[in-house]
């Protein structure tokens, strides 16, 4: 059966187990997926682009059809540059919908050839976000069950976490 290629964009500040669950499921459904770190102008990032890309490279190492990249600019311009016409976003709850719906419509206005598709997160990760990870870690809390083990060292170093 023919499979398509897709783009999974985000700020990944930092990558969570919820993101990895979506990446794993996209990689099973699609021929290839490019995970792209983009700056989110609404949020000041804690991790540099290099750190975010490195975390994603480590956690996706075992997936042969996953590539990690970064871009500073409009998502649709990056997608056009890479000749990818499907953007996949994860949805955790109804609260994500309004903003993602707006982004999808804006991106369609900017480039009608690119489609946004949504994938529902696994229910066990529906509470999880990069912001929650940063909040817990900034108070010295244990985030090991929230982030992929391969990304933990970089996160622990950033927040001086003592859990091993
Ligand atoms: O993980 P996030 O923070 O929900 O990801 C949002 C992101 C980075 C994918 C989104 O902010 C984005 O696409 N930024 C790039 C600039 C852009 O194209 N904005 C949409 C048109 S205004």
The CATH superfamily label reads HUPs
Task: Name the hetero compounds present.
Answer: 4'-phosphopantetheine
Mean pLDDT: 96
Work out the number of β strands: 5
- Give, in order, the helices and strands: EHEHEHEHEHH
For this structure, what is the CATH class?
Alpha Beta
In the CATH hierarchy, the architecture is 3-Layer(aba) Sandwich
In short:
The protein is α/β, with parallel strands linked by helices. Helix content is 41%, strand content 19%. The chain has a single domain (5-159), classed as Rossmann fold.
Describe what this molecule looks like in 3D.
The protein has six helices and five strands. With 164 residues, it is of the alpha/beta class. It has one domain: 3-Layer(aba) Sandwich (Rossmann fold), CATH 3.40.50.620. Helix 2 (49-59) runs antiparallel to helix 6 (149-159). Residues 9-11, 38, 40, 74-75, 103, 106-107 line the site of 4'-phosphopantetheine.
List strands and helices in order, with pairings.
Blueprint lengths: L4 E6 L6 H13 L2 E7 L10 H11 L6 E6 L3 H7 L4 E6 L2 H17 L4 E6 L9 H9 L10 H11 L5
Parallel strand pairs: 1-2, 2-3, 4-5
Helix pairs in contact: 2-6
This protein binds 4'-phosphopantetheine.
What would the keywords be for this entry?
single chain, 164 residues, alpha/beta, Rossmann fold, three-stranded parallel β-sheet, two-stranded parallel sheet, 6 helices, globular, binds 4'-phosphopantetheine
């Amino acid at each position: 059966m023919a499979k398509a290629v897709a783009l999974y964009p985000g700020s990944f500040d930092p990558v969570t187990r919820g993101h990895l669950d979506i990446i794993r499921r996209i990689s099973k459904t699609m021929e290839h997926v490019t995970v792209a770190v983009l700056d989110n102008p609404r949020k000041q990032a804690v991790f540099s682009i290099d750190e975010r890309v490195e975390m994603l490279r480590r956690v996706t190492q075992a997936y042969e059809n996953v590539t990690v990249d970064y871009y500073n600019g409009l998502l649709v311009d990056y997608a056009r540059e890479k000749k990818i016409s499907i953007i996949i976003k994860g949805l955790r709850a109804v609260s994500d919908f309004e903003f993602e719906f707006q982004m999808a419509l804006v991106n369609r206005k900017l480039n009608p050839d690119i489609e946004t598709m949504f994938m529902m997160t696994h229910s066990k990760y529906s509470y999880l976000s990069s912001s929650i990870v940063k909040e817990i870690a900034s108070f010295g809390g244990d985030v090991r069950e929230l982030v992929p083990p391969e990304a933990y060292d970089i996160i622990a170093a950033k927040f001086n976490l003592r859990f091993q």
